[in-house]
Write a structure and sequence with these properties.
Blueprint: E1 2-3, E2 9-18, E3 22-31, E4 34-44
Antiparallel strand pairs: 1-2, 2-3, 3-4
Amino acid sequence: MMVTDDGGYEMQVYDRTLTATGLDLTFSRIRDGEQFKLIKGALTKVK
C-alpha cells in the first residue's frame, strides 16, 4: 500500500493459486478504492 501525494492510496495485490497443472496468478492494482489494472496469467508445470 502506498499513500499518494494528494492523500489517496494505491495497492498492488498478487493472488496466487496452486493447481494440479501449475499456478494461476492474478495481479490487481487498486487506486482510491477502484480497480485500476487487472492482469491474469497461468503457469504450467513442466517435467
